[in-house]
Amino acid sequence: MSDKKKPVTIATVWLDGCSGCHMSFLDLDERLVEIAPLIEMVYSPVVDSKEIPKGTDVGIIEGAISNEDDRAKALKMRAACGFLISLGDCAVTGNVPSMRNVFDQKECFDRSYHENAQLQPMDPTVCVPPLLDKVLPVHQVVDVDLYVPGCPPPADAIYYVLSELLAGRQPDPLLLTRFGK
Ligand code: SF4
Question: Whole-angstrom Cα distance, residue 66 to residue 87?
């Protein structure tokens, strides 16, 4: 029987964010090779899988919660993942997406789809999930186990967080990152 340790399963989702937090994850560069044998990416924009497997060890959410689709994905992540990380300022505070919170939806739609439209101004009605009234940080929708701020959090901070978790320790991300960094 093999005594090889089972890899830690990781799922990541990209909600209302710019993907910069996922790019920062990829900026681990050669350190990805180092941790690759220890983890298994079971769901992510960077892998081809359709469902978040139940019993996933670690979930990582990038982006704020701006629409019904974001909210449903956050709930699925919480239900599927044993430990949930809110990654980056958009997930932790709402950050850039929440700048629309000072306007009502009609003002946002008028600005985006009428005032600035050069052809066929109209509100989107199909193939787009309904917007929430206000953009929410992840923890206002689901419980979060660890906050990793930064815009984006630097690769060193992400590497530190993952290494500590893989070693069975609780990381303190504020040693390496902070809001707006
Ligand atoms: S925190 Fe910054 S880098 Fe990450 S998704 Fe938001 S805007 Fe992009």
Answer: 16
CATH of 8-99+131-175, one of 3.40.50.700, 3.40.630.30, 3.30.70.1020, 1.10.3720.10: 3.40.50.700
Of 112, 111, 106, 102, the C-alpha closest to 134 is: 102
Atom of ligand 1 nearest to the CA of 150: 1
Dig out the tokens for 80 from the structure: 């599927």
Amino acid letter, residue 40: E
Average pLDDT over residues 26-54: 95
CA angle (174 as vertex; 168, 176 as ends), nearest 5: 90
Alpha carbon nearest to ligand 1 atom 5, residue = 17
20 in contact with ligand 1, CB cutoff 6 A: yes
Say what the pTM is: 0.94
List, for residues 93-145, the tens digit of each pLDDT value. 999 999 999 999 999 999 999 998 989 999 988 888 999 999 999 999 999 99
Q: Is the CB of 16 under 6 A from ligand 1?
A: no
Query: Residues 72-91: pLDDT tens digits?
Result: 999 999 999 999 999 999 99
The best mutation among 60, 96, 158 to test binding of ligand 1, ranked by most ligand atoms within 8 Å of the C-beta, falls on 96
Q: Is 152 in the pocket of ligand 1 (CB under 6 A)?
A: yes
